[in-house]
Design goal:
The chain is an alpha/beta fold. It contains twelve helices and 14 strands. It folds into two domains: about 250 residues, TIM Barrel, CATH 3.20.20.70; about 60 residues, Alpha-Beta Plaits. The strands form three sheets. Strands 1, 2, 3, 8, 9, 10, 11, 12, 13 and 14 form a ten-stranded mixed beta sheet that branches. A two-stranded antiparallel sheet has the order 4-7. Helix 7 links the parallel strand 10 and strand 11. The structure holds iron/sulfur cluster (2 copies). One iron/sulfur cluster binds next to helix 1.
């Protein structure tokens, strides 16, 4: 999917984070793109799922006690897309369907309760921001990481942006779920130095139950990425009740050892964390994991350590708990 801004190709971006250290080596600028091909129940970035711009409303920031109503007054549609619910103002289906996307409501809101998710940015605009921190990348072995959502939904733009980074000799990393057409992946990998991707379960049906998609295409693409000689960091978000047993993690370990020809830089076992619930509220969506209560920190830390040691011993894999261990590229 290719977007345009004033006639030029553009990426639809939800966030740019500077000085990140967990998604690739060194200090990085990380860019989050909109649009995703999966529906993981534990997703903490629901604003990246839709491939289109959307308005979010934070009910907690609305002036509740004396609703000012400035948003309604500013709306050229007489406030028709905006719906109040009790004390709050909420994003409703009507907003998504009828809104003229003019953002006058957001501009007028004194509490900044209304937020636009998704900004169109050209490669030139993004490169300007990326290049501000060139000295940090050089000193720390860092660079740029493209993330999402699923950045490969916007593969043409990602290809162009990474090409420009390569021209500036900036290290490039793509974090992707790889549930995308193989040819799109191959095109983007032409300018990618490091790939971070997930294996969420080896059983296709369990994978589908928690992510909305089977794992066949993902595993095919990971094998292909290894064949292409890509450096791979593989992650598994370890979710209690979904994939946290020894046998389920061993199944991933077997695949990594037997099918990827030693291309793994690191295998990271990540904890499930209940995050992003306010963003779900802002979009008027329920949190998909419902009121699931995550285990205590001491419990999940011990389990991740146990799983990582098991994979090191049984499969000789560079398995680690979390994403903080140094990457030996
Ligand atoms: S973006 Fe414009 S049309 Fe949409 S709700 Fe706000 S003021 Fe109304
Ligand atoms: S303008 Fe902002 S604070 Fe005022 S009613 Fe609308 S959302 Fe609430």
């Amino acid at each position: 999917m290719l977007h345009y801004k004033n006639g030029e190709p553009a990426g639809l971006v939800t966030n740019i984070q500077k000085y990140t250290i967990h998604d690739g080596p060194g200090i990085r600028t990380e860019i989050f793109f909109k649009g995703c091909t999966m529906r993981c129940k534990w997703c903490s970035n629901p604003e990246t799922i839709s491939p289109l711009r959307e308005l979010g409303v934070y009910p907690s920031k609305c002036v509740r006690d004396d609703k000012c109503g400035l948003c309604v007054k500013a709306c050229p549609l007489d406030g028709a897309p905006i719906r109040f619910d009790g004390e709050h103002i909420l994003a409703s289906l009507a907003m998504a369907q009828a809104c003229a996307d003019c953002l006058r409501c957001a501009d007028e809101c004194p509490g900044r309760a209304i937020k636009l998710w998704g900004e169109l940015m050209t490669a030139e605009e993004l490169m300007k921001i990326i290049l501000e921190d060139l000295s940090f990348y050089r000193r720390t072995g860092g660079g740029v990481t493209l993330n999402g959502g699923e950045v490969l939904v916007q593969w043409e733009f990602a290809h162009e942006l990474l090409k420009r980074c390569r021209e500036q000799e900036i290290h490039t990393c793509v974090e992707t779920a790889l549930n995308v057409p193989t040819e799109h992946m191959e095109a983007v990998f032409e300018y990618t130095d490091l790939v971070i991707t997930d294996i969420k379960h080896m059983d296709p049906e369990k994978h589908r139950a928690y992510t909305g998609a089977g794992n066949e295409l993902i595993l095919k693409n990971i094998r292909r990425a290894a064949e292409l000689g890509m450096k791979l960091v593989i992650r598994t978000p370890v979710v209690p009740g979904h994939n946290n047993s020894d046998e389920e993690i061993r199944a991933v370990g077997r695949f990594l050892r037997d099918e990827l020809g030693g291309r793994i830089i690191q295998y990271q076992l990540l904890p499930y964390r209940k995050m992003g619930t306010e963003k779900y509220d802002s979009l008027g969506q329920p949190y998909p994991m419902g009121d699931f209560v995550p285990p205590e920190r001491s419990q999940w830390e011990a389990n991740l350590l146990h799983l990582a040691s098991m994979l090191q011993e049984e499969f000789g894999l560079p398995a680690v708990p979390g994403s903080g261990a140094k990457l030996e590229l």
